[in-house]
Amino acid sequence: MDKVILIKYGELSTKKGNRNFFINTLSSNIAAKLSKYDVSIKKDRAHMYIEFKDSELDNIRRDIEKVFGIHKYNIASIVENDIEKIKDVVLKVINDNNPKTFKIETKRSNKNFPIHSGDVNNVIGGYVLKNISSIKVDVHNPEMLIKVEIREKNAYVYYKEYKGAGGYPVGTQPIGMLMLSGGIDSPVAGYMALKRGVKLECVYFEAIPHTSIEARNKVIELTKKLAEYTNYINLHIVNFTKIQEAIYKNCREDYCITIMRRMMYRIMENMCKAHKGFAIINGESIGQVASQTLVSMNVINSVTNMPVIRPVACLDKLEIIDIARNIGTFEISILPYEDCCTVFVPKHPVINPKNETAIIEENKFDYKSLIDEALNDIQTIKVRAEEKEFSDLL
Ligand code: ATP
Ligand code: MG
User: Fold this and answer.
1) Class of 3-163 per CATH?
2) How are the residues of the chain apportioned to helix, strand and coil, as percentages rounded to the nearest 5?
3) Looking at the predicted structure, is the pLDDT value of residue 19 above 90?
4) Residue 290: what pLDDT?
5) Whose CA is nearest to atom 2 of ligand 1?
6) How many angstroms separate the CA atoms of 339 and 222, rounded?
7) Are strands 101-108 and 47-51 parallel, antiparallel or unpaired?
8) Per the omega criterion (within 30 degrees of 0), is the bond before 349 cis?
9) What is the arithmetic mean of pLDDT over 189-195?
10) Helix (H, G, I), strand (E, B) or coil at 110
C-alpha cells in the first residue's frame, strides 16, 4: 500500500497576507532537510505531501520533526478515488489495529467524487460493521478515529497524528545575531529564536589564552546542535582578549562585568550592521547573576539601540535546563571548559550599576580602537549539523 507523509498548513493560515511566503519557505526547508533521501515533495493549497521509501521512514520522521512550521503531520495511505478501494483500505487499517470502537470522518474537497462526505462515512462504517462483528461505532469518543480525505487525484486514509516541532519556518524572519557562550542558557535562547522563524547567526567572544580551544570546540558543537533546525549556521568568533585584558587592567573591579558586557553589545551592534541582522539575541535571564538584574540590563543595554531579544528572560533555570535536555545541548553545555565570562569574575560584581560610573570607567582606555581591532579579527565558520570535521572556514 502506498503511503505519504501529509502535512497540513492549518497552523500557518493565520498569516493570511504572508501565506504563500510561509508555505514556500516551509517547503524549501523541508526539501533541504530531506535532500539526502529518496523522496518526492508535492504541495497543493492545503497540504504538503511527501512520498518516501518505507525503509527510510524512521529517519525522515526524525528529520522533519526538526523543521519548524510543522505542528502536526500524518502518515496516510494513498488510495484511488474509488469507494470500493477506500472501503478495503479502511477495513485493513482497522483490522491491523483491532480497536473496540471507531468513527469515520470524511472530507471531500473533490466535488466530482459522486458520494457526499456524510454518505461516505455511512457506506464505509456499514462495511466495517458487516465485516468485523465485535466492533462498534462511537461518534463521541472512538478508540480509533479514521480520517478519509477525498482530493483531486487521490483519497487519503489516516488515523495517527504525530507532533511536529511547531513554530514558524526558519527564514520567515530575517537574521538575528545570537550571543552564544558555552553555557546552558544561550543555546536554548537560540533554539527559541529559530522556532520563531529567525534566521540565526552566532557570535562567540573568545579570550585565548585565558580560554581554551576546548571552549571554542564546545561552542562549535552547540552550533551544530542548533543547525539541526536549519540548513547551516554561520558562527563568528571574535577575538576578545585585548578588550578583556584592558578592562581588567584599567577599570574598577566591581564594574568589570558590566563594562565587558557593554563592549560585547557594541560589537554585536556592529556585527548586526555588517551581516544584516535585525536583533541581538542572548541567554540573559532576569536575576540570574549580578549582570542580569533589571538595573544591570538597563545600563548594559544603553550602549545600543538594537532590539535585544532575551528568549529565556523569564524562565527558571530548571525550565531552561528542561529545554536544553530536550534539544540535546545540555550535555555539551555542562562540559567543564570555561568561557571568557567565567575566567575573569570579580569577587563582588556590582548589582545596581550606574550608567555614569560605567562611562567613566570604560573611558579609562581607548575602547573604540580595541573594538575596531576586534571587528577586524573575526573568524567565520559555516557550521552544518552533521559535519564531523570542522573544515569549512569561510
Ligand atoms: P549561558 O547564559 O549561555 O548559560 P553563562 O551563564 O555562562 O552562559 P552569562 O554570564 O549568564 O553566560 O551571560 C549571559 C549571556 O551573555 C549568555 O547567555 C550569552 O548569550 C552571552 N554571553 C556570555 N558570554 C559570552 C561569550 N563568551 N560569547 C558570546 N556570548 C556570551
Ligand atoms: Mg546564564
Assistant:
1) alpha beta
2) 40, 25, 35
3) no
4) 78
5) 185
6) 13
7) unpaired
8) no
9) 98
10) coil
- Per residue in 319-367, pLDDT tens? 999 999 999 999 999 998 776 656 677 788 999 999 999 999 999 999 9
The residues with which 77 forms a beta bridge, in sequence order, are 3, 157
* The ligand 1 atom nearest the CA atom of 291: 10
Ligand 1: list residues with CB < 6 Å. 179-181, 183-186, 203-205, 282-284, 288-289, 339-342
CA dihedral over 389, 198, 375, 274, signed as positive or negative:
positive
Rg (CA), the chain: 27
DSSP 227-289: HTTSSEEEEEEEE-HHHHHHHHHHS-GGGHHHHHHHHHHHHHHHHHHHHTEEEEE----TTSS
Domain 170-383 has CATH 3.40.50.620: yes
Extract the runs of DSSP E, i.e. beta strands, from 125-160. 136-137, 144-150, 154-158
**What pLDDT is recorded for position 288?**
85
How many whole angstroms separate alpha carbon 154 and alpha carbon 310?
Answer: 46
Ligand whose nearest atom lies closest to the CA of 333: 1
Q: Which of 180, 219, 175 is nearest to 198 (CA)?
A: 175
CA distance 30 to 9: 13
Q: Tell me whether the CATH fold assigned to 3-163 matches the one assigned to 170-383.
A: no
Going from N- to C-terminal start, the domains of the chain cover: 3-163, 170-383
Degrees, nearest 5: CA angle 377-378-381: 150
At residue 87, does pLDDT exceed 60?
yes
Q: What is the pLDDT of residues 134-162, one digit of tens each?
A: 999 999 999 999 999 999 889 999 999 99
For ligand 1, mutation pick of 177, 186, 261, 321 (most atoms within 8 Å of CB): 186
- Spatial neighbors of 77 by CB under 8 A, at least 6 apart, are 1, 2, 3, 89, 93, 156, 157, 158
Atom 11, ligand 1: residue with shortest CA distance: 284
Please report the atom of ligand 1 found closest to the CA of residue 341.
24
